[in-house]
Amino acid sequence: MELKAYFENNRGFGVLATADQQGNVDAAVYSRPHVMADGTLAFIMNDRLSHQYLQSNPHAAYLFREGSEGYQGKRFFLTKIREEQDSELLDQLKRRVYPKDKPHEGPRFLVFFKIDKELPLIGPGEETD
User: Fold this and answer.
1) Element (H, E) at 116
2) How far apart are the first and last CA of the chain?
3) In this predicted structure, which of 48-52, 55-59, 68-72, 124-128 has the lowest mean pLDDT?
4) Whole-angstrom Cα distance, residue 66 to residue 74?
5) What is the 3-state secondary structure (H, E, C) of 19-62?
6) What is the domain partition of the chain in residue ranges?
7) Which tens digits make up the pLDDT trace of 45-54?
8) 81 CA to centre of own chain
9) What SUPFAM superfamilies does the record point to (predicted)?
10) pTM summary value
11) 2-120, what's its fold?
């Protein structure tokens, strides 16, 4: 699983862009996605603007810049396929541990996306249809 190894071995900076049904755009910093066995990407989300926009428009874009020098990374064009709220799988995948005196508040969602297109961070990539 090439993509799983890529995200496990590369630290960096990610941005998830979403838009609602009216075309209002949001961009938010997100950690590396979880690459599932079926090749989908999953993000853990709070119930904020990115998650809210995905309720009316399932399309998103994720940009990942590797932590190395220069502009290495990937761009993904995504379509939401499903989500889970406060699930056991979400608890297994979470990377952040909250102190007992400051527990996470509010619902959390594990949102799954199929990859529609993958391109390098810089440049057009190869044309594929």
Assistant:
1) strand 108-120
2) 23
3) 124-128
4) 8
5) ECCCCCEEEEEECCCEECCCCCEEEEEECCHHHHHHCCCCEEEE
6) 2-120
7) 999 999 999 9
8) 13
9) FMN-binding split barrel
10) 0.86
11) Pnp Oxidase; Chain A (2.30.110)
